[in-house]
Design a protein that fits this description.
The chain is mainly beta. It has helices spanning about 1-20, 100-105, and strands spanning about 30-40, 40-55, 60-75, 80-100, 110-125, 145-155, 160-165, 170-175. A hairpin with a 2-residue loop joins strand 2 (about 40-55) and strand 3.
Length: about 180
């Protein structure tokens, strides 16, 4: 009987310790701005990304997202310079896993890995007077995929600052917790 009480006490102590140490993920609006670096469309500035995280499982969230960026790229054709202009609006879903418990991070910090997948709405055009290959810079797919690593510092229970480094769009921004 003493061993059962001891096990029950240890389980309750561990659970209460986890509740205090573990961040509450989800119900968070993230608004970020930054840069994109896609090899096929050149550097873009600024990129704006918006997502809203929902708690799905312990340390795991899903977040529908939408973004916006525009870029231009110079192309020389027939002894003249022409510009290719592209506006992209990626929409999709981001899955995020938080490593705070594993890293024994303080409640002021969140550390995560994430992946995004979606569809990119694209508007592309060439300067007037360009009669070369209109598909020169055209992307082969409208699939949007991105891998992320990031951190958030909680300024308060309601507000955080995050840095999200990724394979395509890196952002710095504000996190608004509900």
């Amino acid at each position: 009987m003493k061993s059962l009480k001891l096990i029950a006490f240890l389980i309750l102590a561990a659970m209460s310790n986890n509740v205090q140490a573990q961040e509450q993920y989800g119900n968070t609006l993230n608004l970020g701005a930054g840069i994109g670096y896609y090899g096929y469309s050149g550097h873009t500035l600024p990129v704006v990304m918006l997502n809203y995280e929902f708690n799905v499982a312990n340390n795991f969230t899903l977040a529908p997202f939408v973004g916006f960026y525009t870029s231009s790229r110079r192309y020389r054709w027939n002894k003249n310079d022409y510009y290719y202009h592209e506006t992209v609006i990626p929409i999709g879903l981001k899955g995020t896993y938080y490593f705070d418990n594993l890293l024994n991070a303080s409640s002021k910090w969140d550390f995560y890995l994430a992946g995004s997948v979606g569809y990119a709405l694209v508007s592309a055009r060439w300067d007037d007077g360009y009669y070369g290959d209109p598909n020169y810079y055209r992307r082969t797919t409208h699939l949007y995929a991105d891998l992320h690593i990031g951190a958030e510092w909680h300024a308060s229970q309601k507000l955080g600052l995050f840095l999200d480094l990724s394979s395509g769009v890196s952002t710095f921004g504000l996190a608004f917790h509900k």
